[in-house]
Amino acid sequence: SQTIHQWPATLVQPVGSPLSLECTVEGTSNPNLYWYRQAAGRGLQLLFYSVGIGQISSEVPQNLSASRPQDRQFILSSKKLLLSDSGFYLCAWEDRRGTEAFFGQGTRLTVV
Amino acid sequence: DAKTTQPPSMDCAEGRAANLPCNHSTISGNEYVYWYRQIHSQGPQYIIHGLKNNETNEMASLIITEDRKSSTLILPHATLRDTAVYYCIVRALYLNRDDKIIFGKGTRLHILP
After folding, report:
1. Could you tell me if A88 and A38 are in contact, meaning their C-beta atoms sit under 8 angstroms apart?
2. Per-residue confidence at B1, pLDDT binned at 50, 70, 90?
3. Which of A61, A86, A89, B39 has its CA 20 to 30 A from that of A41?
4. Does A34 touch chain B (CB under 8 A)?
């Protein structure tokens, strides 16, 4: 069966520090991968979308970046965090048909 | 750029049917209606999807109007655990590269004891 792993679950980072969040998917191949962010009390904002290795679509210009070094690995990064980067970060995958998307448990990031 | 319109919030008594409406007047012929929900502090969970026929699964029923411009998600016997934000999304199956999952604001459903 397919599973999605996202870590860490919580993270507290100082302003200006780097960030690396990792997401891996098991049990499927060639998935579409997503990174979303949800600020406190707000909706789900799509950050990045990937249809294949090295193919990243950025939806919102900001100080975040994403990479897909392997088929089932999606990494969200920042060189210098801002206070406004605080939020709940969610990784998701779906198969090529797009029937159903599966979400990770999320990372709650607090930038202090 | 969500293609759907939903009421911001709804209340429903526990044990009653919860009927969540969604308008999607610009839906295209190859686009499906999907429903997800997000319980507080969790990732969204897929509920159901349909093209034009009514659909039912163990979680809910989806009623799509004949002109496909609106739909209703029905939770037949709502429980307190159904309290969540419900998202209605329109997108095509067998995706092209630009067909991403975009969430709107959804409907915050409160199940009242």
Report:
1. yes
2. low
3. A61
4. yes
Amino acid at A50: S
User: What is the model's pLDDT at position A2?
Assistant: 72
Determine, for residues A100 and B42 on separate chains, whether the beta-carbon distance falls below 8 Å: no
Lowest-confidence segment of A60-74, A87-101, B34-48, B86-100 by average pLDDT: B86-100
| Cβ pair A51:B102 closer than 8 A | no
The whole-number pLDDT of residue B94 equals: 62
The b/e string for A49-73 (b: 16+ C-beta within 10 A; e otherwise) is bbbeeeebeeeeeeebebbbeeebe
Q: How far is CA B49 from CA A109, B88, B97, in A?
A: 32, 9, 20
Q: DSSP letter for A40, please.
A: T
How many other CB atoms are found less than 10 A from the CB of residue B80? 10
Concatenate the DSSP letters of all residues of B14-50 into one string: TTSPEEEEEE-TT--TTEEEEEEEE-TTS--EEEEEE
**DSSP state, B58?**
S
- Tens digits of residue pLDDT in A25-60: 998 889 999 999 999 888 899 999 999 998 999 988
C-beta atoms of A92 and B43 within 8 A: yes
- pLDDT tens, position by position, B68-95: 999 999 999 999 999 999 999 998 876 5
